[in-house]
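Run: sequence + zinc ion -> complex structure.
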Amino acid sequence: MLVKRGDSVEIPFSLSPAGCCKPLFTYAVYDSLLNHSRSNRMTQSWGYAAQQSTTPLAPFSFTRRDPKEHDVAVEIEYCGVCHSDIHSTRNEWGNAVYPMVPGHEIVGRVTAVGPAVTKVKVGDRVGVGVIVDSCRTCPSCKAGEEQYCEVGATLTYGAQDKYGDLTQGGYANNIVTDEHFVHSVSTKLDPAGVAPLLCAGITTYSPLRHWQVGPGKKVGVVGLGGLGHMGLKFAHSFGAHVVQFTTSSSKIADARRLGAHDVVLSNDPDAMNKEANSFDFILDTVSAVHDLNSYLPLLKRDGVYCQVGLPDQPPTIFMGNLIFKRRLLSGSIIGGMAETQQMLDYCAEHNIVSDVEVISIQKINEAFERVVKADVKYRFVIDMSSLKKQ
Ligand code: NAP
Ligand code: ZN
Ligand code: ZN
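>> structure
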């Protein structure tokens, strides 16, 4: 089906002001759609997919578009396992479209480029993150904040792209995507450790930079998982005094090793009370519903609470916790493409990677279960060469 300006198309969950956790929504076709017909899908791919919300991931073969003018084809070496992959494949946010190949923490080598590509060349090591397209013309896109694209950025998997194809993610042998959404990765860094930077890294780097976390600031990180441990590393690296909040006493020593100046067990009310009115900024990375009312009072006057974790249910907030100290509750999602490159370059310069447990693709369902139990130190990363054993 060809579309024309003004048509309405149904787009499953993409990053849009309409938000997630909503039924399918529609938006007017934007200009870039007008220049394309549906793609040629001749690139053979295979990976692991969910066929529905209640079944385990299993081998799946499919096709992707052939690289177009501005496209880059990547052979995937490693893909991180984000909690969002679990929320999505299990349809915890609603709107899941199957079959779904998850994965948006992708590192690999370029195998082909379209004729107009200038950013990378065949053989380069590159990364692909959470989004693979946006309109490029709205104020957010023009400001380099493609993740806030006003007509909806296209998610790496589970979304409909401008060609009408369903996007499929990085638990696969390859991916084809526009060069604007491909990032250069330093060969100095361990590629398995780099993969989680493409989501967990940028999702924590961006708000810490936006809210100017640095020397003289007291910063809290809530939850020591994939995002949390990257937030901790970055906040430490930026020179802040960092306090890690965790529900897991088994993670206290690790939190200190990863850069925490102090560690607070969030299920100990006395320990929490001692921290009241003392934080400039708190970054909340928790994946499950939890009581924000026990964290908001820890902020100083005008302190900022930033939510990046996205549980499937909304919190209940006592507004007095905001009103009485003019505290600010905010949120943030990944980062723009230029900022993602800046983050990767910062990591290369400062030798920062994720702490990973590398697994074969055959272990993915077990890994999902362990992530849900907060039993991962601190990111599973799939070695995609294991697909060849299939
Ligand atoms: P993760 O590795 O599972 O880490 C979440 C951590 O939250 C756990 O390790 C645990 O840390 C803590 N936790 C889990 N259940 C809890 C509970 N019931 N009460 C309190 N703490 C609990 O997940 P992740 O991959 O870092 O992702 C975290 C969340 O961010 C997910 O909801 C994900 O979808 C979302 N996300 C958002 C963005 C964005 O752009 N905003 C990007 C990526 C992911 P402790 O053991 O230390 O307590
Ligand atoms: Zn993610
Ligand atoms: Zn846009």
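>> summary
The chain has two domains: 8-196+355-389, 200-331. The radius of gyration is 20 Å.
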